[in-house]
Design goal:
The complex is a heterodimer of chains A (224) and B (69). With 224 residues, chain A is mainly alpha-helical. Helices cover 75% and strands 0% of the residues of chain A. In chain A, helix 2 packs parallel to helix 7. In chain B, 86% of the residues lie in helices and 0% in strands. The model of chain B has no long low-confidence stretch (mean pLDDT 76). The chains are: A mainly alpha (224), B mainly alpha (69). At the A-B interface, helix 1 and helix 7 of A face helix 2 and helix 4 of B.
């Protein structure tokens, strides 16, 4: 856990994101009907989901660690990762709605991808509600760890598998090719992958800051 | 043989259509050539620089508090 106090990877995150902001607007993109310049949203909308996934994976990892060790610090790490993940989840949903307005015609068109993303969002909100409704600390930690471990695969199925099996407007779903196959050319790859890495690191950074604040609060309560 | 060449000609004739389609797609070329896109990049860079500095200060303040313990 020493790595969360190091500075180099935080600086790396900032450098990568600066690079994607500059190169993301200046480098060429394929000329595609309907999308036009909005294809550049790929550099900013998709990394939100990647960041969300990364912190949720870390959260599940710490929930499992909590269940096997009963160390309460792991529970704190898990909940702060979910909190950060929900921030990026909201950003992903909002940027997706913005993009949908100008390419699909409406902010919310009841698309399977949008609907299941909304359901999975509520699933994680329920995690926080469940947590706050249990007073006893050990019970709260255990119940929410188990819930978190079950919520994660359900979220994956809802967002990434079910929409793929029906008709959806979202790229990569229901016979609709993902950007990766035809449109993501080498110029876009040069920006897209650094963007994914940069925003993921930023999300982890915010999660570690939240965790450290939680840790201080936890120790303070322990002394009293 | 003639039919064959007509067939080849007709199959290849759609290439021009595709070329026209991609040329006709509207992109922000004018904006980029006139240089105004740099203003947007500069704005975004300022915003993100602010956020990054803000995060680093929070990080540093946290480090101080953690050391006090």
């Amino acid at each position: 856990m020493k790595i969360i106090y190091k500075t180099w990877w935080k600086a790396l995150a900032v450098v990568l994101i600066f690079y994607t902001i500059i190169a993301g607007f200046l480098l060429g993109v394929p000329r595609l009907p309907i999308l036009h310049e909005t294809i550049r949203n790929l550099y900013f909308h998709v990394p939100m989901w990647m960041s969300m996934l990364s912190v949720f994976v870390i959260s599940v990892f710490y929930s499992i660690r909590y269940l096997s060790t009963n160390n309460e610090l792991y529970d704190l790490a898990a909940v702060e990762c979910v909190n950060t993940g929900l921030l990026f989840y909201s950003l992903g949903l909002l940027t997706g709605m913005m993009w949908a307005k100008f390419t699909w015609g409406a902010f919310w068109s009841g698309d399977p991808k949008q609907n299941s993303a909304a359901i999975a969002f509520l699933l994680y909100c329920a995690y926080l509600v469940l947590r706050n409704s249990v007073d006893e600390e050990q019970k709260r930690a255990r119940i929410s760890a188990i819930y978190n471990i079950f919520a994660f695969p359900i979220m994956i199925v809802l967002i990434f598998i079910l929409p793929r099996m029906t008709d959806s407007l979202h790229p990569g779903n229901g016979g609709n090719p993902a950007f990766g196959r035809y449109d993501l050319d080498d110029r876009m790859r040069m920006v897209f992958y650094p963007a994914m890495a940069g925003w993921t690191l930023l999300a982890v950074w915010i999660a570690t800051i939240r965790y450290r604040i939680r840790l201080i609060e936890y120790k303070k309560n322990d002394i009293n | 043989m003639k039919k064959f060449w007509i067939l080849i000609f007709l199959t290849l004739s759609h290439i021009a259509v595709f070329a026209q389609q991609s040329a006709g797609v509207e992109m922000a070329d004018a904006m980029r050539s006139s240089g105004k896109i740099y203003v947007v990049i500069a704005t975004l860079c300022i915003i993100f620089a602010g956020l990054a500095v803000y995060l680093f200060t929070i990080d540093r303040r946290l480090k101080k508090i953690e050391k006090d313990k």
